[in-house]
Design a protein that fits this description.
- Helix content is about 50%, strand content about 10%.
- It is α/β, with parallel strands linked by helices and about 300 residues long.
Length: about 300
Amino acid sequence: MTSGTTATGLDASREALADVVAIPVTPFAADGTIDTKAHRALLRRLVDGGVRTLTPNGNTGEYYALSPDERRTVTELTIEETAGQAVVLVGIGLEVPTAVAAAEHARRTGAAMVMVHQPVHPYISEDGWVDYHRAIAEAVPELGVVPYIRDPRLRGESLAELGRLCPNVIGAKYAVPDAAHFAAFARDAGLERFVWVAGLAELYAPSYFAGGATGFTSGLVNVAPAVSLGMLEALRAGDYDTAMKVFERIRPFEELRAARRSADNVTVVKEALAALGLCRREVRPPSRVLPEPARAEVAALIAGWPT
């Protein structure tokens, strides 16, 4: 599904961001390579479950543990498997030439958008942040571009400036764990100019929707698409009572993922998928598989979830 330079193309991409933005896992085979058969099956399960926006090479997909060739494989496989049934928002990043090359590859393979990971650098100026994203956005004017914002020091005015310079910067994945800060940032940047995606998934979605978000990312959706889509339906309807019932149901699972600075963020999701017999539990360093007692805890937490 390819986005063009027309307003219609960007409008379709904006609409796709106002949804559950699934971050698929990258399953590994016994020999440590990507298990492409399992990967296809997991993607098909998401699409068949009603998910319409996917981010290959996101953090739940172990982006930083994949080689450049593997990231290209994940992109190609996702676009091929979901062609015509989902909008693909490819995760890219690292230094500018690598990010641009990945964005161009995403364009060639048919992606609609790219999600730009937070720059990996110890010294980031706000002007430099704008320059970084501008270099990427200008290289692929046909694609929607979505910065992944994790830095609480970034001001909304910087995103506003980037949007002024680059019309194809259409949304922001906002992942600073502060709902009041998000609401102020969105208004400083332009509440209507960008599509606001709650980048900290279901537990933050209700408070971020109250501040202006219209979509949220999810790793949990790999395990139970109906749960994530149910929360979205409630939030779209303004039914916060129902949304918070979902919140309470998934809270122990998501808190396991967030514990110890999210040390087991991906590990818990893969453990749940392993408990369901959908893929192996293996993750790559610096992540690590769960010990036996924690595996049983994860299996117990997801028992009874619609799958």
